[in-house]
Amino acid sequence: MNDLSTLTGWGGTSPSSAHVVRPVDVDALRGQLATAGPRGVIVRGLGRSYGDPAQNAGGTVIDLTDWDAILDVDSRAPAVRVQAGISLDRLLRALLPLGLWLPVVPGTRQVTVGGAIAADVHGKNHHMDGSFGNHVSQLDILLASGDIVSATPEGDNAELFWATVGGMGLTGVVLEATIELKEVETSYFVVDTQRTRNLAELLSALSDGDDDYTYSVAWFDTATTGDALGRAVITRGNTALREELNTAQRGSALRFAASQHGRVPFALPMGLVTRPTARAFNALWYAKAPRHRVGEVQDITQFFHPLDVVGDWNRVYGPHGFCQYQFVVPFSEEAAFTTAVETLAQSGHVSSLNVLKRFGPGNASPMSFPMPGWTLAVDLPVRPGLDTLLSHLDQLVVAAGGRIYLAKDSRAAAATIARMYPRLQEFRATRAHYDPDRIFRSDLSRRLDL
Questions:
Q1: pLDDT for res 271
Q2: How wide is the angle at C-alpha 412 spanned by C-alphas 269 and 218, nearest 5°?
């Protein structure tokens, strides 16, 4: 039965209605492609893209979250083969007791493997290990024709592989994926914390010290201006060895410490994130951080996923939702980056969740977001004037040779994205080859003419 549902991304903006279907097998899935109407189909996982790539107004949305089997674990390679609807949360819970870990883990575990591939997600270790697609060795893809094709990074179907990585679900349905893993002795991390006084000190500290750590991220204050513009708290770490744990921790060295303490039951009528509360949070978060602390042992939730502790945390932004705006500019464009931070700080649009990282080299995907440079993500509540601010930031980013992240976008213009992604025409050509009738469509693909 087709259920007409109103869908949004995690940001709660740009709702649209589509027929949501949950096919039970490949034949049923083929049937959905064969009978797709003029609005086409798109696959949806757990709905954690912030914008509209997993929506399809007036068309069909295929929910594959029941396709969540672990098909094979090769502890010698090591690697795992899974159905694409499995969440990273469930996968990590199965892998850690075996001493295995995903090479790239984003800011939440509540995403599917298929979604991680479609968005080519990144984590705190991009400067060392690249993005999720770098560690996928094979994809089994159901094409619009109904054929199933196996694609690898360097094989005969490499073009399809790399168009699917970062391709926002527009090349076909990823059915299965083989992911390379890393071996770990523990599920803990040894973390160093450093507080910096302003943006210049922050960028210098990250440039000088990141190569000593597998994982690195900085939270910084978007509300304070003047000499304290961009003051920040850097947390960097490496996977802990057993010998680095205390006696109690060694007894549960591979424990998956990732509990959830309640949920936000509904979208708060007025939202909790206002200019006064965000400014207060920024000041408190900076003040409570240690000036310098080394060797602290933290678990998965503490270091990677503090927001996963509260379910449906996006509802604190209220009924109008929020935009998570993430951009990257090259390392040579620190002046443009500083201008963007100053623009945010002076705009009156204040964010509490502010993440800055250094990216390493990108991969072969024409639509993958990361490139060598500085990346910043901010969560901005929707209120009057926000789109004007973000459009201005778009132009700063374009002029600096940077780009914004499609998995978090819900409002950019097609012409802007075309300037940000110089290989867009290459992606369009690959997509046209494998889906000439444009069976795979989404609100994002129509908005951006992908």
A1: 65
A2: 70
Question: What pLDDT is stored for residue 170 in this prediction?
Answer: 98
Does this chain's domain 70-184 share its CATH topology with 189-414?
no
Give whole-number Cα distances, 406 to 92, 312, 351, in Å: 26, 22, 20
Partners of residue 275 on adjacent β-strands: none
- Residue 413, CA distances (Å) to 418, 442, 443, 447 in order: 9, 15, 13, 7
Query: Is 70-184 assigned to CATH 2.60.40.1120?
Result: no
> What is the pLDDT, as a whole number, of residue 2?
53
Q: Which of 101, 114, 122, 106 is nearest to 180 (CA)?
A: 101
Report the alpha-carbon distance of residue 147 to residue 345 in Å, rounded. 51
User: What are residue 276's DSSP bridge partners?
Assistant: none
For the residues of 92-118, what is the DSSP string, one character each?
HHHHGGGTEE-S---S-S-SBHHHHHH
The CATH topology of domain 189-414 is Vanillyl-alcohol Oxidase; Chain A, domain 3 (3.40.462)
For residue 349 the two structure tokens come to: 């649009």
In the chain, where the domains are located = 70-184, 189-414
E strands, 276-425, where? 292-298, 322-329, 354-359, 373-381, 403-404
pLDDT tens per residue, range 404-415: 999 999 999 999
List residues bridging with 61 in a β-sheet: 20, 42
Which helix H or strand E contains 83, and what residues bound it?
strand 79-83
Amino acid of residue 172? G
Residue 335 and residue 286 in contact, taking contact as beta carbons nearer than 8 Å:
no
Residue in the block written with tokens 């984003």: 106
pLDDT of residue 280: 80
User: 374 and 358 in contact (C-beta within 8 Å)?
Assistant: yes
Spatial distance between the Cα atoms of 249 and 257, rounded to a whole number of angstroms: 11
Please give the helix or strand (H or E) that residue 218 lies within, else none: strand 215-220
Q: Please, what is the Cα angle at 307 between 255 and 203, to 5 degrees?
A: 100
Low-confidence ranges of the chain (pLDDT < 50): 1
What tokens does 265 get? 């039951």
| Pairing label, strands 3-7, 373-381 | unpaired
Cα dihedral sign, 187-192-195-198: negative
Q: Is 444 helix (H, G, I), strand (E, B) or coil?
A: helix
